[in-house]
Amino acid sequence: MMMMASSRISSTFIHPSFSSPATPFLHIHNNNNNISNNNNNKFSCFNKLRKQRNSIILQATTEKKSVLDNRMLVFVPPHPLIKHWVSVLRNEQTPCPIFKSAMAELGRLLMYEASRDWLPTVSGEIQSPLGVASVEFIDPREPVAVVPILRAGLALAEHASSILPATNTYHLGVSRNEETLQPTVYLNKLPEKFSEGTRVFVVDPMLATGGTIVTAIDMIKERGVDNQNIKVVSAVACPPALSKLSEKYPGLHVYAGIIDPTLTDKGMIIPGLGDAGDRSYGT
């Protein structure tokens, strides 16, 4: 089913199997027949109905926020540049240097969307050349981390430092056994403990079976990060991986360039874009 997330992201995909059924929302409608035509009580009835309506809206908003807080949401921003770079990545004729560059540009756009309304800011005043101006900066005291999953995650996260001020990058290498499809960690540069309140972007281009991304998030959570402080950035996602994430991490947000329907027997996304690591680095 499709769900409107906000005015900035008009396409939010939530597969029916990803979460439990949503709490029914209250439907608000106006019925003019309930308002008396008697001039003596016309306005008192209107005020009473308006108060009731405002109370219902508040209750519905609270219930809606509670539901969304407990569900994993998958955002597919409908930006034409995102569609363009996904198309470049899909093309089997795209050479490695262009593929890697396209992956980096897609990552820039997705991380821009994922960071909206999520990064802490600090406000104040500064002196411009022509006067005093009220300003707002990203708060450098609040830690933000980027965790690219090697290899292909490096390409998708290449421009992270250009759009996310004061970030730390922690590399995590996870390979997948081509026979069993089970993940193996071969490089771990995560800190022993993340600072309290750290916001973490986990960058993994392909969410296929879900084994790699689940392994990565488990390791991050073991180091003190809550679901609500983790955002996953991916070029292509598939329902098996999204289903695993939804079951394990309520409140998690995933930002993907596109969602593809199925996998091969070898766990490759169809139609996908091939092996993102091989196509990024030519090996």
From TrEMBL:
<feature type="domain" description="Phosphoribosyltransferase">
    <location>
        <begin position="76"/>
        <end position="283"/>
    </location>
</feature>
<keyword id="KW-0547">Nucleotide-binding</keyword>
<dbReference type="GO" id="GO:0005737">
    <property type="term" value="C:cytoplasm"/>
</dbReference>
<protein>
    <recommendedName>
        <fullName>uracil phosphoribosyltransferase</fullName>
        <ecNumber>2.4.2.9</ecNumber>
    </recommendedName>
</protein>
<dbReference type="InterPro" id="IPR000836">
    <property type="entry name" value="PRTase_dom"/>
</dbReference>
<dbReference type="InterPro" id="IPR050054">
    <property type="entry name" value="UPRTase/APRTase"/>
</dbReference>
<keyword id="KW-0342">GTP-binding</keyword>
<keyword id="KW-0808">Transferase</keyword>
<dbReference type="InterPro" id="IPR005765">
    <property type="entry name" value="UPRT"/>
</dbReference>
<comment type="similarity">
    <text>Belongs to the UPRTase family.</text>
</comment>
<keyword id="KW-0021">Allosteric enzyme</keyword>
<dbReference type="InterPro" id="IPR029057">
    <property type="entry name" value="PRTase-like"/>
</dbReference>
<dbReference type="GO" id="GO:0005525">
    <property type="term" value="F:GTP binding"/>
</dbReference>
<dbReference type="GO" id="GO:0004845">
    <property type="term" value="F:uracil phosphoribosyltransferase activity"/>
</dbReference>
<keyword id="KW-0328">Glycosyltransferase</keyword>
<comment type="pathway">
    <text>Pyrimidine metabolism; UMP biosynthesis via salvage pathway; UMP from uracil: step 1/1.</text>
</comment>
<dbReference type="GO" id="GO:0006223">
    <property type="term" value="P:uracil salvage"/>
</dbReference>
<dbReference type="Pfam" id="PF14681">
    <property type="entry name" value="UPRTase"/>
</dbReference>
